[in-house]
């Protein structure tokens, strides 16, 4: 049977550990003596149940490049039953994978694919099965750390304080919790990190990675996690915040922009990193919020370092706030390194235009667009309601030449994908591809069902241009996709 190493013993103190065979082997027993922990038995042959042996063997096959991948191995491990769960935690802690047929052989060091398979298997078991096992291994240490610090007099009377948890054990606990946890488990993550003394001032690289992945896993699994992070943000020590901010960016949910906005406005130390995540999340569906976030980013351009300005400008470029265009045009002449270049990228992001990066060129374009909106836009849009297909198509071609207010223009054009005239529908699809507005995406996906093959092809081409993705021409492939 497997015994926990010194890392586990240090984490849990006198807590009794469940051996690998719990639930799957009749030979399960308790720890004999704390002094026996620290390595697998080298003097007697360890005994494994069938499920334990199969689990170890499946993981070891991942060293073979021709073997099934981590996902398939994880499914096979799940089929062995919950009795293997505790053993998976032991392997994560020790980072060592013994040979069930030859315990004397030197254990394998865990590979990335083996870790992936174990975490996927833990996720497949689900919280209902995994959490009780996890709680039995780590709950006592967390509870002890939550208790008020002992008085000096009590310590002198012989009471022992709970030892700090080694980073490796905390990392394993984090990884497992991220594999099955929900919103209610985020507070356990914060408590786990407190068990590692060093983390109060600086997270190790491994803990940073594990924290990002654990929080990311919970956010992807439970939509309520993001709101919980926002509510508990103030309890996080500063060294952990950067990892959580990165997890919010990796999660890809634009709702995370609310917390990022708060950081940009009120936390200068994290404003640049928050701006970098805004670039990943992109705009929300609330145009007023997008404008507010863009305005806060513009303030960062003026008040921060050149690096802050560079990150903020690129974030503005994805927020679709056209009110920022005049400021971005002026920044084309900024002498700070990288600022003018990033302003050019941001202008292209908002307008889809690739003009020469000179302020005079962009000012001329902006004035021309503003004049068209003031003097001609209303009349052109009115022609879209006409009965003559030629007049409608001419109006569509005119609209396709303009990019200012492109999202509003796309909303006017999209209904024509359902026109009675095929040539009008084709022109509408082409123009929507030119405008590259995500607001028209759902209409284009629906147009993939059009009876006309030409219209279906036109809608597909527009979707490819808007999304930058290489999906096929069937609506099922596009439904549910989030567009930039």
Q: What's the pLDDT, averaged over the residues? A: 86
Largest sheet: 2 strands, antiparallel
Using the CA coordinates, give the radius of gyration. Answer: 29 Å
- Weakly predicted, low-confidence segments: 1-45, 151-163
| Strand fraction | under 5%
The run of helices and strands is HHHHEEHHHHHHHHHHHHHHHHHHHHHH
In helices, the fraction of residues equals: 55-70%
Query: Helical segment tally?
Result: 26
Overall structural class, as computed from helix and strand content, comes to mainly alpha
Strand segment tally: 2
Terminal Cα separation, in Å? 52 Å
Number of domains: 3
Could you explain the architecture of this structure?
With 484 residues, the protein is an all-alpha fold. It folds into 3 domains: 6-139, no CATH class; 252-374, Leucine-rich Repeat Variant (Alpha Horseshoe), CATH 1.25.10.10; 376-478, Alpha Horseshoe (Leucine-rich Repeat Variant). It contains 26 helices and 2 strands. A two-stranded antiparallel ribbon has the order 1-2. The longest helix has 20 residues, at 127-146. It is globular. The two termini are 52 Å apart. Residues 1-45 and 151-163 have low confidence and may be disordered.
